[in-house]
Design a protein that fits this description.
There is one protein chain. The chain has 75 residues and is mostly beta strands. 9% of the residues lie in helices and 19% in strands. The chain has a domain of 43 residues. The chain is built from one helix and three strands; from the N terminus they run E-H-E-E. A three-stranded antiparallel sheet has the order 1-2-3. About 8% of the residues have low confidence.
């Protein structure tokens, strides 16, 4: 469990306070992949969006996508 570094992160009355995100919450784990032109995901993992964009071939119809494996929803 992490400790907040500022009071703004835990102050729910502050209009600019961002909601606290639990890094261990599997719903927050976003994967980056490449959706191939044939509609299938590439069979490999990417460490970052930049790595996926470098590997993808947009001229052949590939798209970089972000998704969550737990809720199977796009981001």
């Amino acid at each position: 469990m992490s400790t907040p570094t500022s009071t703004a992160a835990t102050d729910r009355t502050s209009p600019t306070a961002a909601p606290a995100v639990d890094p261990d919450d599997p719903r927050e784990h976003i994967e980056v992949g490449v959706l191939l032109a044939n509609g299938r995901l590439a069979g490999r993992r990417f460490g970052s969006r930049a790595e996926a964009e470098a590997w993808a071939r947009p001229d052949e119809g590939d798209q970089v996508v972000e998704y969550n494996l737990v809720c199977e929803c796009s981001v």
